[in-house]
Each structure stands twice: as C-alpha cells, then as structure tokens.
C-alpha cells in the first residue's frame, strides 16, 4: 500500500472562486482580490492572489471558465487569428489597428515566449587535462600572470609625470631642433 501525498492546501472556498471569477473578467490581479472581499493593501492583494493562481485547482477552475466562454462565444483560436489576419492585410485598416493585430497574433502564436535553453554538454576539464599530461603534451597555462615591468621604467614614468606639473614641456622643442 503506497501513501499518497495529501494536498497541502484546502479546496477553493467561495472567496477564492469569486476572486477567480473577477480575475477572469478583468485580468487585474490585486483589484480582483480586493473585489472578492479581502481587506488588505493592493500590494498584499497582488501577492496573495499570485499564490492562489499558482495552485493547480485554481488553474483548473480558470480553465473551466475559459472553456465556458469559448463554448458560449463559438470562437476558436483559428477564427480569431483569421480575423486578425484580415485586419493586418486590409488596405482600409488604421495603422494602430494593424499594429495591435500584429502584436496579438504574435502573442497568440508564442512569438514573445522565451526560448527554452538547451543544457550545454558538460566537459570534465580536469580529466581532459590529466589525459593530455599523461600523453606527454606540453600544457600552456592560460592564466599566466603578466611580467612585472622594470622598476626603473616605473621610476622614470613617475618622475616625468611629476615634473610635468612645474617644468615646461621640452619635447616639442627637441623635435623642432632635429
């Protein structure tokens, strides 16, 4: 006999369902939470509502509301995209309508979704390094430190910069004499 994990949350209550109904209609997270009868700030309302929206039963309830709307309207996704295409390619459409139709089509087909990152193959560089050393290859370290400059050149550079403050620049005169 296997133990099924019990849900960590209670089923949706009437306030939760009222919130989801309002959210489905308006799309405003925090305000829908407040309209459902909760008494808090708008920031707290948005936070609390976000937690409810993450629940699987809340997502199922929203999906059922959306399915009911689709059944009631008789519109399918393809019908909506076709209508947007008509607006997009219409010669009489206003520029604003064309732009909005294009954006909505792009959103519906997922153009704004982030691409899934493919995991990079892991390379065990230590094993590769050991193989190269055992094979007798000469390994150049990429992390070599640059050689320290000559202390004399540091001294000369420092003195030139400090005397340049109070001595006239003679480099132009030296070049003119030659």
Describe it for me?
- With 178 residues, the chain is an all-alpha fold.
- Among the domains are: 14-73, Arc Repressor Mutant, subunit A (Orthogonal Bundle); 77-109.
- Helices cover 61% and strands 0% of the residues.
- It is built from 9 helices and no strands.
- The protein has helices spanning 14-26, 29-35, 42-53, 56-73, 77-89, 95-109, 125-134, 151-163, 171-177.
- Helix 1 crosses helix 4, helix 2 packs across helix 3 (42-53) and helix 5 runs antiparallel to helix 6.
- The longest helix is centred in the middle third of the chain and has 18 residues, at 56-73.
- It is flat and about 75 Å long.
What structural keywords apply?
178 residues, mainly alpha, Arc Repressor Mutant, subunit A
Number of strands: 0
Q: Please mark out the parts with pLDDT under 50 across 5 or more consecutive residues, or reply none.
A: 1-6
| CATH architecture assignment name of the domain at 14-73 | Orthogonal Bundle
CATH fold type of the domain at 14-73: Arc Repressor Mutant, subunit A
Helix content: 55-70%
Shape by Cα distribution: flat
- The helix/strand class is mainly alpha
Number of helices: 9
Quickly name the level 1 CATH class of the domain at 14-73: Mainly Alpha
Q: Give the N-to-C terminal Cα separation.
A: 101 Å
Q: Oligomeric state of the chains?
A: single chain
Q: In angstroms, what is the radius of gyration?
A: 35 Å
Instruction: Provide the residue-averaged pLDDT.
Output: 78
What is the ordering of alpha helices and beta strands?
A: HHHHHHHHH
| Relative strand content | under 5%
Largest sheet: none
């Amino acid at each position: 006999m296997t133990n099924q994990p019990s849900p960590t949350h209670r089923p949706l209550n009437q306030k939760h369902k009222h919130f989801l109904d309002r959210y489905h209609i308006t799309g405003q997270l925090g305000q829908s939470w407040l309209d459902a009868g909760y008494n808090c700030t708008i920031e707290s309302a948005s936070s609390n509502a976000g937690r409810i929206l993450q629940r699987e039963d809340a997502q199922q309830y929203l999906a059922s509301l959306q399915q009911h709307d689709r059944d009631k309207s008789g519109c399918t996704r393809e019908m909506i995209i076709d209508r947007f295409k008509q607006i997009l390619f219409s010669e009489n459409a206003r520029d604003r309508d064309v732009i909005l139709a294009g954006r909505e089509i792009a959103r519906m087909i997922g153009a704004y979704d982030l691409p899934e990152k493919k995991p990079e193959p892991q390379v065990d560089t230590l094993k590769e390094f050991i193989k190269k050393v055992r094979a007798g290859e000469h390994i150049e370290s990429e992390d070599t430190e640059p050689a320290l400059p000559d202390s004399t050149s540091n001294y000369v550079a420092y003195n030139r910069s400090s005397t340049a403050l109070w001595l006239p620049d003679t480099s132009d005169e030296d070049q003119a004499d030659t």
